[in-house]
Amino acid sequence: MKKLGLILLGVVAVIVALHMLGPLVGLAFSGLFVWLGMHYYVKAKSTFAKVMWVAVGLVGVLSAISNIPALIGLAAIFVLYVVYKKWNNEDAPLSLNTTKENDPFTNFENEWAKLTK
Hints:
Layout: H1 2-19, H2 21-43, H3 47-66, H4 70-87, H5 104-115
Helix pairs in contact: 1-4, 2-3, 2-4
């Protein structure tokens, strides 16, 4: 039953991701324009070149705003990743907050808690 749910969730995620392929490509090009605008703005020497690269960056930002539905496609791709990890019985990282076990501050906090008991 669990495998059936994973298959159904995966199929729905594939359909959504394929449906959002156009906005995803548009969002990628928008990000490219924003990156180009920022990158060449920093390298530009003249004021005219800086104004032109800011304009390129603004075109990228406006294009990215128009491709907001691509975020649904990104979420569907993430769901496909999680389904794949669950299918192979691997742990899928669902939180972006990962802590190191060798973090000196965490170790200090643990040692301090032991000393103050």
